[in-house]
Specification:
12% strand; 3 helices; three-stranded antiparallel beta sheet; single chain; alpha+beta
Length: 90
Amino acid sequence: MARNTRPRISDGQLELPVTGDGYGEEPSQALLLTVKEAAKLMRIGRDMAYALVAEDKIPSVRLGRHIRIPRASLIAHLQAEAERFHGEAS
């Protein structure tokens, strides 16, 4: 019997271990992630994450020389990619 469930990615699934980052905010609650943090959340390499950002396959913003990935945009993007890959559930 085939399983007809739509993949779901929630904010709770994209959390970093709670460690101090020197900025007074825990990375697990940050609105903007570094590329390294996003790579860790997605369980991919840092170089692959930078390549996906360069190819505009991961939503990102530039703040001066810094690249940041909005957590909400990353979750929405991953959800859309999962739905595209697995198809709409009926």
